[in-house]
Amino acid sequence: MSLFDLTGKTAIVTGACGLIGRKHCEALAQAGANVVVADLNAEACAAVAAELPGGIHLPLAVNVTDPASLASARDQILAQFGHIDVLVNNAAINDMFENPALAADLSKFENFPLATFQQVLEVNVTGVFLAAQVFGTPMAQQGHGSIINVASTYGLVGPDQSIYRNEAGEQTFYKSPSYPMTKGAVVNFTRYLAAYWGKDGVRVNTLSPGGVENSQDEFFIKQYSAKTPLGRMAAATDYQGAVVFLASDASAYMTGANLVVDGGWTAI
Question: SUPFAM superfamilies, from UniProt (predicted)?
Answer without folding.
Answer: NAD(P)-binding Rossmann-fold domains (SSF51735)
